[in-house]
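G., the chain you wanted modeled:
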Amino acid sequence: MLAQSPEYILHQVTKGWSIEVTPNAAKKIDNFSELLQKNTTVNVTFLPNSNLLDTIEVCKRLFKDGMNPVPHISARSIKNFDELDSFVKQLSQTSNVREVLVISGSLDSPIGEFHETMQILNSGILQKYNIEKVGVAGHPEGSPDISDALIKDSLKRKIEWSLKEDISLYLETQFSFDATPVLLWEKSIRNEGIKLPIRIGVPGPANIKTLFQFARSSGVGASIRMIAKQSRNISKLLMVQAPDKYIFDLANGINMDEECMIENLHFYPFGGFKRTVEWVSGLENGNFIFDGIGGFKVNEF
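Predicted structure as C-alpha cells:
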C-alpha cells in the first residue's frame, strides 16, 4: 500500500458524514440549508415518550430544506402494526423518506406489540412504502443488556433479511471516545462473516462534563473510563473536548486495513447542533492543523 498523507487520510474518512437532531433541537434551527450542504444525511432521534408526529414534522422540514431525513423507528415505542404503518406511510408521502434507522429502543418495557428490531423488519411495512436502505445498531463496546453472541446472531439474521428483501443494510454505532475497541470490534464481526457498511458514532465537541453525562447514561464501556479520568479534574469540566484524536486514530486504522468496513462518521451533537456542524465542516474543508501529539485542531475552535 502506498503511504498516504495524514491530510488525505482525514479527508477520506470525513467524506459523507452524517449527523442527528432531536425534535427539540430542530426548533432552534430556522433553515437546515443555512448550516448543511444539500443532501446531508440527518437522523431524527426518537427519544423515549416522544411523539411520532414530532419526528414527521422534523423530517418534513429537512426534506424541504434539501436534506436526506433518516427517522429513527424505535420498536418499543410503537403501539401496534397500524401505528407503524401510518408512521412510515406519512414519512414516505410527506418527506420522501427512503432510509430509516431501526432500533429496539431504550424503554425497559415496550408500550405495544413490538420489542425488537426484527419485528419491524419482518412486518412488511418498510417494503410497502419503498424503503430502500435500513440502518441497524452496532455495538463496538458491547451492550449491558445483550451478550456479544446474541448480538452477532441477531446481525446475521438481519443480513439474511436484507438479502431476501433486496434492501441495503448498514450498521450505525453508538458514540465512543477510543478508536482501539472500535477497530477491534469491526475486525471481529468481519471475521464472523458480518460484512456490512459501518457508520461510526462520534461525539461532537462539548465540554467534558456534558460528555461524561452522556457516556454514563449510554454505558459505552471502555470509553467511559477514558472520559471519566478527565472529568475528575474539576478545573477541566467546562473545557471543550473535540474528537480529533479519536477521528485521527480511526482514520489511520481504516487506512491500514484495506478490508475495513467503516465507511462514514456519524456525529452526535452533544455540544450543540450548530457548533458540531461548524467543527465538522472545518475538518471536511481542510481548515485544521496537526498538533504533533496524535491529533489536530480545527481552526477557530
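The longest strand covers residues 168-175.

Shout if anything looks off.
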